[in-house]
Amino acid sequence: MQTITRAQLAEAIYAELGLSRNESAQLLETVLETIAASLEAGEAVKISAFGSFVVRQKGQRVGRNPKTGVEVPIAPRKVLSFRPSQVLRQRLAQAPAARG
Q1: Which residues are CB-contacts of 71 (< 8 A; sequence separation ≥ 6)?
Q2: Distance, CA of 27 to CA of 59 (rounded, Å)
Q3: Alpha-carbon gap, residue 38 to 79, rounded angstroms
Q4: Is the pLDDT of residue 99 over 80?
Q5: Separation CA 61–CA 85 (nearest Å)
Q6: Are 25 and 10 in contact, with CB atoms under 8 Å apart?
Q7: With 1 labelled, which of 69, 71, 79, 99 sits at a CA distance of 20 to 30 A?
Q8: How far apart are CA 57 and CA 9, in angstroms?
């Protein structure tokens, strides 16, 4: 499994749009910062034909230490979830299986 980096995304923008490498990197950073700031503010981010990012609040709950079995309280926290769009789900279902 391969991981795509920021640099690779910026390079793809450069190749696709013909902007300079600096402009491509700056565009990518602006998009990512806008998404992050929206999520920080508690807003959902929906990217058409791709999916939605939503921040959810999880309440406090009781967990268990797997080694000792002792109950441990787990503090409330925010979690980020991603839900792919139907278009992306269909693309993934049709894609050939990746080999690792």
Answers
A1: 62, 63, 64, 65
A2: 36
A3: 14
A4: no
A5: 30
A6: yes
A7: 79
A8: 30
